Amino acid sequence: MSRKWMKVLLVAVFTVMFGNLAAVNLVDMYMDGGPFMHIIAGLFVVMIVVALVKFFQLSITEKLDTKRFYLKLKGYIANDQFGEAVEISSQFKKTTMGFIFWNGLVAFLDAKKAGKKGFTLQKDVQNAFDEAGLQKMPSIEAGLFWLDIIAQVATLLGLLGTIFGLVAAFDALANAPENLKQKMLTEGISQAMGTTAWGLLVAIPTMGIKGALQAKADKIVNDIDEYSVKIINRISYKIED
Question: What sign does the CA torsion over 23, 25, 27, 29 have?
Answer without folding.
Answer: negative
